[in-house]
Amino acid sequence: MAGIVVNKVADRINCKSLSGNFFPEDHIKSLMFKLVKQDGNFVYKGAWGDIHPTFGVNVSDIAGRRLQDIFSEEVVRQKLPFYEKCWEGEEVKYSGMLEQFSFLVFLVPVKDNGCVTEISGTVMDITNLKKNEDKLFNSEKLALVGQLAAGIAHEIRNPLTSLMGFTKILLELNKDQQLTGQYLGIMQSELERIRNIVNEYMQLAKPQIVAGEWESVCLELLIRDVLRLEETQALMKSIEFDVHIEAGMPPIRGKANKLKQVFINLIQNAIESMERGTIKITLSRYQEEMVKVSIADKGCGIPEEKLSNLFTPFYTTKANGTGLGLSVCKKIIDDHQGRIEIRSMENGGTIASVMLPIQHDNEQS
Ligand SMILES: Nc1ncnc2c1ncn2[C@@H]1O[C@H](COP(=O)(O)OP(=O)(O)O)[C@@H](O)[C@H]1O
Ligand SMILES: [Mg+2]
Question: Which among 294, 310, 312 is the best mutation to test ligand 1's pocket, defined by most ligand atoms within 8 Å of the CB?
Answer without folding.
Answer: 310
